[in-house]
Amino acid sequence: xxxxxxxxxxxxxxxxxxxxxxxxxxxxxxxxxxxxxxxxxxxxxxxxxxxxxxxxxxxxxxxxxxxxxxxxxxxxxxxxxxxxxxxxxxxxxxxxxxxxxxxxxxxxxxxxxxxxxxxxxxxxxxxxxxxxxxxxxxxxxxxxxxxxxxxxxxxxxxxxxxxxxxxxxxxxxxxxxxxxxxxxxx
Length: 186
Prior knowledge:
There is one protein chain. This protein has a domain at 98-186. The two termini are 24 Å apart. α1 packs across α7 (172-184), α2 (24-50) packs antiparallel against α6 and α5 runs antiparallel to α6. The longest helix is centred in the last third of the chain and has 39 residues, at 124-162. By secondary structure, the protein is mostly helical. The protein is built from seven helices and no strands.
């Protein structure tokens, strides 16, 4: 095998050994922002469902505040979604959790589109339709994210159990190759 092919193989092996799970600070920040986003949207929806019918289309003060928090948090959340590219790339390369992961990506896309329609479109029929789509998908986003996380933890536990070789089982050359790759990785 040529050195070029060996280097490429070593890079692929290293990619497969990288953690798919987010770093603790990244995970905590993502969960916090997602929680505020989901909570502010759910609060708005609860108030809308249980407000005094005499108010009609008028919004309460708490609804107004929750929408402002929802909009501001959405901007941070969209930025955080952009930071998940490496997570998605590694998960796809490992063929891990792809169904729930791509489902989450698709649902986030629909939420972005329906939120945009709610903000910019003035046609009442379109707003009503996009509002229903937005809150239905928004509400199911939390259980789906939890399912994605739990499935990932189960998958990771299986992978770690299978890939736990004893030190004697790994050849000295393989350990040296891994060490070299980590040192030379940019």
